[in-house]
Predict the structure.
Amino acid sequence: MRVKVGIPRSLFYYRFASFWEGFFTALGAEVIVSDPTNKRILDDGVKSCVDEACLPIKLFCGHVMNLKGRADYILVPRFTSISKNEYICPEFGGLPDMIRHTLKGLPKLIDTEINMRKSDRGGMKAAIEMGEMIGAGRRRTIKAFQLASQAFRKDQFHTEFRETVQKGENCPWLESRKSENRPQTECQKGENCPHLKSQKSKNCPRPKSRKGENCPLCVGVIGHPYNVYDRYISMDLLRKLVNRGVEARTIETVDEADINRHASGLRKPMFWNYGRMAYGAALHMAESGEVDGFICLTSFGCGIDSFVNDLIERHIRRRYGIPLITMTVDEHSGEAGFNTRLEAFIDMLQWRRQNEDHISASG
Ligand code: SF4
């Protein structure tokens, strides 16, 4: 009988889903992913986890409980680093211990440490350990790792987001790309582009590339993938934007080369992997002129966001004057208040686009 490996649909599932599923399937295991987040999963997580933890960690506990009795192993890796010379949030490092001591009656945990701070070889080392835990030989594990890595390189952009956009009724994001008559933005016009010219001057003003009347508003959504793509926790933010005729960009839609180019402009390299990604992506969206505003989606109590979002906000305001709103979610957040703030923000962006040439809408 095939070994069943349970994967919580939470935290790094939203970044490495295609890798994990490909890896364990190639090892001959049956992969069981926990259900999409719902009220019961959230309530279970909140009741079982320590109060001090942030919302995504509580939610992770709920997803582990959802897999109880359905799998022989549950994947709870001890993430330390996923990129050279960078770390990730320490909450990930303590996760296997927290799960083991708070939730009882669980199957075996695959709690291998993943540490790629010194080199990518840390990933292979972790994979071999995981393979051993579920009884797979070394050669088969190496082959599975290579296959999963290939699949991951092809599909890093999370499919759930793609579906969110594609299923949106009257999706302007897709329509605007299908239409051959899509208004050309000033940035696409090459030589005469005022944005490109202005970038050469020291006092680069905010690019005015998206002011065509038929061009939909576009918002950059900055947040951890496990907040942004979890439709329950994000209160379906991406779909709400699409259904209001607003395009969305996320960190994952920006090329890593562009992210690194902007992040390298910081005086010191970022300590956190997420910090580099979020800062570089936000600055790229602002400089390219593709967004009218930013929404920083954060969970209450997140130490990394309190630092990174503040840095992004100061640099975006100072250099580009683009509006930015921080939307904080926790287990008590009400959807009505969230919607009101979102609608007010979109109205302000619309008003600003129509009127800012006459009266400054942003102070
Ligand atoms: S980065 Fe923030 S939201 Fe994510 S696990 Fe750490 S504290 Fe929680």
Residues 312 and 318 are 10 Å apart (CA to CA). The pocket of iron/sulfur cluster is lined by residues 54, 56-57, 89, 91, 224, 299, 302-305 (CB under 6 Å). Residues 165-355 form a domain with the Rossmann fold fold (CATH 3.40.50.11900). Confidence is low (pLDDT under 50) at residues 165-209.
